[in-house]
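Collaborator request log, item 7. Partner lab (contact: R.S.) asked for a structural prediction of G-protein coupled receptors family 1 profile domain-containing protein to inform their binding assays.
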Amino acid sequence: MLKQILFVTAAGHLVLSVTRVLFFLLPDTWRKPFVSMGNNNQTVATDFIFLGFSSLAELQKLLLVVFLLLYLITLSMNTTIMIIIWVDRSLHTPMYFFLCVLSFSETCYTFVIVPKMLVDLTAERKAISFLGCAVQMYFFLFLGCSHSFLLAAMGYDRCVAICHPLHYNSIMTWRVCAQLVVVSALSGLLVAQVVTPLIFCLPFQASRKLNHFFCDISPVLRVAFTHTNLSEAIIFTLSISVLTIPLMLILISYLFIVLAVLQIPSAAGRHKAFSTCSAHLIVVVVHYGCASFIYLRPNSSYSSDQDALISVTYTILTPLLNPMIYSLRNKDVKMALQKAIRKNILSQKIFQ
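Returned to partner:
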């Protein structure tokens, strides 16, 4: 069952890659169907210009090397975790199934943003087409929101494991795990399907310059000529819901976990129970810390340069930290990795 689900997720990754490539290979006549609306200041955009790293022109080559290195490490670590979980049968449990899906989600998430950012660091004109910007925002919202709900599902898994250990296998069946992943994906899909058309149906200013390095909500809305209070209210409400609903579910799960752990008589038992949640808790704090700073604040405190810096954290550093946290703090993953390395070394000696 796990191999079938992993195969489906890998196929989804391939479809995502092919779809993104096809969008950018469309003819210009298809990608620029928008015309002036008769007002010199009110023009529907055909291209957006990124200004995210324009103030660091002398450091762009260094940033390219650093970001490329971090991106390759992130890809290799997430791929390693997925392969180890797939190969090692001792890791075919709900906890590691969610970890595998999380690694896959992180891989897709970075693929949507980082390659384009790396290309722009080598280009003089850092532009993206209207359609390309819409596609990037759509998948960014889809994967980012799905990530939040997936963390809530992982919190529920830890809650069941600690609060109901004797009934864990009967509650967290493979069907339930698959349903939680599907609900997480559908939640992200719903947000992306609503927010993206609301933003890109707006007329945009002639400048169309985004003080950012990818098509995030706030920078794109900043260059919109006008947007209604209704659309802004819908976008803000969905942003709050995507962050607060999963966070509330996580907090409820950890409330039950704390109550259950406090009933354990021995200190060693309490430490062991908490240690199974530490990696997930660290990932939650990093994820919601960055996301809340960007999206849960009034417009008056908006700072483009500050947001671009924070965005680097949750688009490059956070996907790198997540597999490191889970691999370094998880005994089972480290043992499986060591076993795979020893097995590979042994097979090499045999064939020499």
